[in-house]
Amino acid sequence: MRTGRREKLTGCAAVLAALATLAGCGGSDDAASDRPAPAQGAAKPAVGGRPFTQAQTDAALLTAQDLGAGWAEDEDPADSPSEDVSGGDNSDVGAEGGTESANSAQCDTYMETWNGPKGSQDAVSSTRDYAKASGTEHLTFRVVAYPSAEDAAKAVADSRALPAACDGGSLDFNWGGPEKSEVKAESVAKLGDEAVGMRVTAPLASVPGTELHMQVLTVREGANVSTVTFAAQTPADPALLPPLLAKAATRLHTVTQGATPQP
Question: Rounded distance, CA 40 to CA 107, Å?
Answer without folding.
Answer: 19
